[in-house]
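Format notes (please read before filing issues)

Several people have asked whether sequences and structure tokens are stored in separate files. They are not. Every record keeps both together, in the order shown below: the sequence lines, then the token lines. Line labels are part of the format and must not be stripped during preprocessing.
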Amino acid sequence: MKTSHKIWMAFAALLLIGVYFVPIWGISMEAPQYPEGIGMNIMVDNIEGKQPHDLNNINGLNHYIGMKSIEPASIPELKIMPYIFGFLIITGLIIAATGKRTLILYWLGFFILVAIAGLVDFYLWGYDYGHNLNPDAPIKVPGMTYQPPLIGSKQLLNINATSLPHIGFYLSLASMSIAGLVWWRSRDQ
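Then the structure lines:
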């Protein structure tokens, strides 16, 4: 690879450092009892409220309908994801240093598999939270499930839940795109 391609590959890897500082995904909820809205951000290693008390408020709402409390410390993926992104950063820098174009495909393949696995895991997590309800919950609506959408908006009783990618997702997408472009542009060398 040319020096410029190596620099761009290093940039693609270093771009992933941003996911440690910004949310990867965001879930917002609008309801009459919360006219200003409440929400949570999913970080690489944590889930936190968009505002200081939002996660507590969400857990309070979830209690009434029988959903489990969202406890970031009990979610193993939040312990693993920082290492996965660290691996991607380090291996991306190694690929840039060695200039081995073929390794970019392995890097991208791993990255895409991790992204797909993450989305499937997030869907399953939402399914579990929305379907496995406490039968002793104060509010029961026969046949109602409360699975938040994976992406987009969904009406859940009087709450409109919206789930969308956040800045960290777009940084990851930009990193993959740049690496793919480096692989493509370096094909004649």
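For reference, the curators noted about this record: Residues 12 and 175 are 4 Å apart (CA to CA). The first strand starts at residue 25 and ends at 31.
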